[in-house]
Specification:
- The structure is a single chain.
- This protein is α+β, with helices and mostly antiparallel strands.
- It has two domains: about 100 residues, no CATH class; about 120 residues.
- It contains four helices and ten strands.
- A five-stranded antiparallel β-sheet has the order 1-2-3-4-5.
- Strand 1 and strand 2 form a beta hairpin.
- Helix 1 crosses helix 3 and helix 3 crosses helix 4.
- The longest helix has 24 residues.
């Protein structure tokens, strides 16, 4: 396994049993604390994969906020400070900000909850999330660079949904392509393609390929990945569904 996701032999660790609790805890941290800091500076709240986890791109006065494993890191120019992830309130205090329940949250974001409760962040699960996001960004960048990907957007880790995604396609064949670490409908990590306008695309609803339970589209669960490089598995999945939608 490589944490950098830059080639060679890449693999994902098994998803630990603690993933759901850790995912929910870090989702709350991303949506209610980290993303709003960037938004206050420049009106944007998209996040990125960062080494060992996730965080903002550099913004404002050369600042980046990121989570690496179980550490919350605030880098301002060349000065880096960090604290363990504990509570939402402690994170907000460390970043000199306030908890924001409006800016980045979505319909599927977990409730903000008790801001003084200890966030259940397990090191193994946090490590898995960092690798899942690294795999996802590598695969999404690869499919985005493909000439067949029409009008592809830049990969973003949306804090409200807590998944990396891009959009591909013209006005009649557009879809969202992403890698969820799990949610209330599908608890385990999975890839997905969601078709924006199913009535404009030749989709056979009876085809088991279109197996998404809560939207029109296709999903591939981590448990169903073929052996081999997961970046290639994800890229092939995204590319094959893109080509079907584009027909």
């Amino acid at each position: 396994m490589t944490e950098r996701w830059l080639g060679g032999v890449r693999s994902l660790p098994a998803a630990p049993a603690s993933l759901v609790d850790t995912r929910v805890a870090l989702h709350r941290l991303a949506a209610y604390v980290i993303a709003p800091v960037r938004h206050r500076a420049n009106g944007k709240f998209g996040l990125r994969w960062t080494l060992g986890g996730f965080g903002t791109p550099f913004f404002g006065d050369n600042r980046q906020i990121r989570v690496e494993g179980t550490q919350l890191i605030d880098q301002r120019a060349g000065h880096v400070t960090s604290v363990p992830v504990t509570t939402l309130q402690a994170a907000a205090d460390f970043l000199d900000t306030t908890i924001d329940t409006e800016t980045a949250a979505e319909h599927d974001s977990p409730p903000v909850g008790d801001v003084n409760e200890t966030l259940a962040v397990d090191p193994a699960a946090a490590n898995f999330l960092g690798n899942w996001y690294g795999m996802a960004f590598a695969a999404l960048e690869s499919v985005r660079a493909d000439d067949a990907s029409v009008d592809a957007s830049r990969p973003q880790l949306w804090p409200g949904h807590f998944d990396p995604a891009i959009e591909i396609g013209d006005e009649n064949h557009r879809g969202s392509y992403g890698a969820s670490p799990g949610d209330d409908v599908i608890p385990e990590p999975y890839l997905y393609v969601s078709v924006w306008w199913p009535d404009r695309v030749n989709i056979d609803a009876a085809d088991p390929l279109w197996n998404a339970p809560s939207f029109t589209g296709a999903v591939l669960k981590l448990a169903d990945f073929d052996d081999g490089d997961p970046v290639d598995v994800a890229g092939n999945f995204f590319g094959s569904i893109r080509d079907l939608i584009a027909r």
